[in-house]
Task: structure prediction
Amino acid sequence: MTTLSPELSSKLPRSSDSSMRSKRRKGGWVTFPFIIGSSTLLGLATYGAAANLIVYLVQKFNVSRIAAVQIFNIVNGCGAISPLVGGIISDSFAGCFFVIMAASIISFLGLVPMTLTAILQSLRPPPCTSLSNSCKPPSAFQYAILYVSLALVCVGIGGSRFTMATFGANQFDDPKRQETFINWFFVAFNVAMILASTVVVFVQDTVGWAWGYGICLAANVISIVILLIGKWYYKEVKPQGSPFTGIARVVIAAIRKRKVALSTDVTDYFYQDDQMNTKQMCQVTSKFSCLNRAAIITEGDTHSDGSLAKHWRLCTTQQVEDLKSIINILPLWSSNIFLNTPIGVQSSLTILQALTMDRHLGAHFKIPASSFPVFALVAGSFFIAFLNHVVYPLCRKLLGWSPTLLLRIGAGHVLNITSMVASALVEARRLHVAHGHDLTNQKDYAIVPMSALWLVAPLVIVGAGEACHLPGQVSLYYEDFPTSLKGTATALMSVIVAVAFYLSAAIVNAVKKSTVWLPNDINYGRVDNVFWMLAVVGTLNFCYFILCAKWYRKQPSKCT
Result:
């Protein structure tokens, strides 16, 4: 046998080995700085555009306060719903990277006219110098520029917010590493919101709106550059076509075969679309067994060679199990809607409380009332890192186990309820101080001689709760949803936020109409009763979560 010397071997081309190493290099932690860096900057750009929107509309577009709030609510609602659309598109045919890149470019196209409205006076109505109703409103053209730019920014949010989480988790095969990435994603998510709510808002208010929106525009451009630089290292999971077609097929096929007897013989089930070419074959499970009929082969369902003949009468066992996994997780998903609703109510009421309290830090600095929710974001970022790098590793090292995702979500429920109780106690204290002083001679919001820093403790508690339940929910959905719906799974978190956002507004409106707890001057109201109500309802919702958690069973994998 002829052998080569080491010297000659070292001179031979190694293209195949290099190619193998290149393939092995795809994915993993090398992609982390690119994805997290791009996600943080893009979040700063999009949230920075919306964080101070009410003030911008009132001061620069002569929009009434109520109309400005309505526009702000619509933008936030669209920004929370649109990630679901981005997740569906990435799962169905486009893939995560394409959706993120397209969304980044679209948000850039939205920020360009938004910045121009701050620079060019012709894109805004004439400045209003009086407090009368004679201020000239924006023209149809000026409204069109504003609305188009906001719509494009919302699309940018939709394609990037939780699709980034899916894209980053896809870079890892180990569930523990996927979970770690998702935790860090939420840290970056909170950091972006904190910077947008503080730095960008400060620049807009004190330096100029053009500079503020210019920072957002620059952050968007840099995020695109960072995302492109890391393209060489990304591992892209190919989309498998629209998963919702398969789900619909299972439902229709099961209904059409509702009279077919169930079978325990594995040979009676259809396992694969293209028989011998499919590597994975999944056996049906006993849970939701009525759906198993969709995969039972009956006369005429297949051709003579065993291939599929009737797509809406026969489905693969994999499609049946995919639908079961979705049904399995939906009760838990529904229990988390009201988990986020009290947070929205607390956030808005905290601003009203802060307006009536002493917000001074020292003799010269006064904390803006709208900046108090940032304390929850800071606490959430800290506790995510603390739990992921201190608490959970210590549990594994000292106790030999780590809190499960359901236990973490449950802890988030408890901390959320605790935060509402703390808010109620702080408000009761504030009312006691207010009623003990003569506030009748003060105009507008009467300032109660009590430090607004009392509001920080409940916000820190709710931030700790979010550090438990937000990453826990995303990880749970990502793990339990079928492969074809990974992007949609993480986007479900955004749907929860959207529903909770509108539900919190509805609760405040209902309480205001049906009780005397929320008058215009909350010094003469009972905001503490609102928090007690949220605590009680949160407790009932926690009981519902426990029932859902007991009913929930992780779908067993029976694929070979």
Notes: Strands lie at 357-358, 360-361, 365-366, 448-451. The CA atoms of residues 268 and 296 lie 6 Å apart. The radius of gyration is 27 Å. Residues 175-207 form the longest helix (33 residues).
